[in-house]
Amino acid sequence: MTELNKSKTRKKYDAEFRRQAVEHWQASGKTAVEIGRELGLDPTRLYAWRDSLRPAKPSAQGPRSREELEAQIAQLQRDNDSLRQQRDILKKTLGILSEPPSNATNGSKP
């Protein structure tokens, strides 16, 4: 009867194994079921491990003040403007580089 009890005991996985299993799962592009089969464990464990390894969400720290939210919005708007300018510069550069040369000879001798 002791062997039957041993087979029903729960396996324990150390933190490093859990972290590596979740990283492997996320990097592989495979489903939790496929990775679970590969590692010999229940796929629901992968979901639980992933959730436990995630950093806490900012909302868990409590509500932010209106001033903090407005400052964050202003910063995001500045970042958005900067990214738009960079995008426009790249588009113009690509357009210039894509234009055919302006001289008619294209480097050939007359």
How would you describe this structure to a colleague?
This protein has helices spanning 2-8, 15-28, 32-39, 43-53, 66-98. With 110 residues, it is mainly α. α3 (32-39) crosses α4 (43-53). It starts with a helix and ends in a 12-residue tail after the last helix. The model has no long low-confidence stretch (mean pLDDT 82).
**Rg from Cα:** 28 Å
Number of helices: 5
Q: Given the helix and strand composition, which structural class is it?
A: mainly alpha
Query: H/E element string?
Result: HHHHH
Strand content: under 5%
Which descriptor suits the 3D outline?
Answer: flat
Structure summary:
This protein has helices at 2-8, 15-28, 32-39, 43-53, 66-98.
Task: Tag the structure with descriptive keywords.
5 helices; 110 residues; 2 domains; mainly alpha; single chain
Task: Give the helices and strands, then pairings.
Blueprint (H helix, E strand, L loop, with lengths): L1 H7 L6 H14 L3 H8 L3 H11 L12 H33 L12
Helix pairs in contact: 2-4, 3-4
